[in-house]
Specification:
The complex is a heterodimer of chains A (230) and B (163).
Chain A: H1 3-17, H2 22-25, H3 30-66, H4 71-82, E1 96-98, H5 103-112, E2 120-130, E3 133-141, E4 148-156, E5 161-163, H6 172-183, E6 186-188, E7 216-217, E8 220-221
Parallel strand pairs in A: 1-4, 5-6
Antiparallel strand pairs in A: 2-3, 3-4, 7-8
Chain B: H1 17-26, E1 31-32, H2 39-47, E2 60-61, E3 69-73, H3 78-90, E4 96-100, H4 101-106, E5 129-131, H5 138-154
Parallel strand pairs in B: 1-2, 1-3, 3-4, 4-5
Helix pairs in contact in B: 1-5, 2-5
The chains are: A alpha/beta (230), B alpha/beta (163).
Chain lengths: 230, 163
């Protein structure tokens, strides 16, 4: 395409965008005219997109300024209407610390409530907090509202019972089995709570801080020569 | 050999039957094809076209009953150790074991903190050749297998005590 024709097309497209279609229709050469029309369609398609983009950005900014509540605060407020005495200790803005007793009902509420709708359990892990406490952490995410939250539940190491949410989120089956395998947290109500990685006859819970390696396993000696290695 | 010496024509070689059997065996040590960790990738590379284990008579077999050599390629966990032992027991005599890589020889990087790792496969089954490396290159594995072939050649299958 020669430069003259390009200039002509730019000119008529600019006029057409301003609302004057005559210059395009008056082009005598058929090929040039169709090229100009194609350029016009392209330009029109590009223009409204920019407007939509700026609109959505404005809307997002607006909603940000309107709702300063974090998702944790929203969840706590929503739960407070339906449950009493479920929080465990002081709260902060990064997670929600709750008690183990009502966890199954709370989880069911979190999953089914229309405004929260945490339909995806993304991870469940355990932590040994020492001082006789274990913790189970749940990372929930909502595919519908695209918000996420972390739930933490502390239990004592003597009686590490937490209600299982395996029947709510199917993925929790293996997550909870792994947490059970590594930390010995007992998920009550789990339909198939067995060790998942280690052999079933393994002694102890390996990721607890006070774990000690067994000396033999099925007659296999575990050498414990550790001098000069740290 | 005094009895047989100079009693045959020139085109007949007199040797021990042991040596014939050892020679035949050393040039066809079929290995049991299984890998427990990343060393298996190098073992596959050694068996593939560039290094081509088949040119020294070594062919992967997928059943322990058809294999002479077990290459323990990779980390052996405690859970796996019992199964490795069972597979070794399923192989027919004479059988040989190559411990490939530092995990199979000593536990490797899991020596100190790997509560679940077997600290060397020789705690469970007898090992003939150790190949160091993490993981060893295919050349190293081939070197180890050539050493194993030498060992087999020196062996005396008819007089060897098994078990």
């Amino acid at each position: 395409m020669s430069e003259d024709i390009q200039l002509l097309i730019d000119d008529v497209v600019a006029k057409a965008l301003a609302g004057d279609m005559d210059p395009i229709n008056n082009i005598e050469d058929r090929v040039t005219r169709s090229k100009a029309k194609a350029a016009l369609v392209k330009a029109k398609r590009f223009q409204p997109q920019i407007e939509v983009d700026s609109k959505s950005v404005q809307a997002a900014e607006k909603s940000d300024t309107e709702s300063k509540q974090t998702i944790e605060q929203i969840v706590i407020a929503s739960l407070s209407k339906n449950f009493s005495d479920f929080l465990d200790g002081e709260q902060n803005n990064d997670w929600v610390q709750i008690k183990a007793e009502n966890w199954f009902d709370i989880a069911k509420y979190l999953k089914t409530n229309e405004d929260l709708y945490f339909d995806s359990l993304q991870c469940n892990t355990g932590v040994d907090l020492e001082q006789g406490m274990l913790e189970s952490r749940y990372n929930l995410h909502s595919m519908k509202h695209l918000h996420a939250i972390e739930i933490r539940i502390k239990v004592s190491i003597e009686k590490p019972d937490i209600p299982s949410v395996e029947s709510l989120w199917r993925v929790a089956d293996w997550f909870e089995r792994e947490t059970y395998d590594m930390f010995g947290i007992n998920f009550t109500g789990h339909r198939d709570l067995r060790r998942i990685l280690l052999p079933e006859d393994w002694d102890g819970w390996p990721l607890r801080k006070n774990y000690e390696e067994q000396e033999t396993y099925h007659g296999i000696v575990v050498p414990k020569v550790k001098e000069g290695w740290e | 050999m005094g009895l047989l010496e100079n009693r045959f024509d020139d085109n007949i070689v007199v040797e021990k039957l042991d040596k014939l059997l050892s020679w035949a065996r050393s040039t066809s040590p079929w290995f049991f094809q299984f890998g427990t960790a990343c060393c298996a990738i190098e073992m596959m590379a050694a068996a593939a076209s560039r290094h081509d284990l088949m040119r020294i008579g070594i062919i992967p077999r997928s059943s322990p009953r058809q294999a002479d050599v077990m290459i323990v390629a990779g980390t052996v966990t405690m859970k796996m150790a019992l199964r490795v032992k069972k597979l070794y027991e399923q192989m027919a005599d004479p059988k040989y074991v190559v411990a490939m890589g530092s995990c199979a020889t000593s536990g490797g990087p899991y020596w100190q903190h790997g509560y679940h790792v077997l600290k060397g496969v020789d705690l469970v089954i007898p090992v003939d050749v150790y190949v160091p490396g993490c993981p060893p290159r295919p050349e190293a594995l081939i070197e180890g297998l050539l050493k194993l072939q030498e060992q087999i050649l020196e062996g005396r299958p008819l007089t060897r005590k098994t078990g």
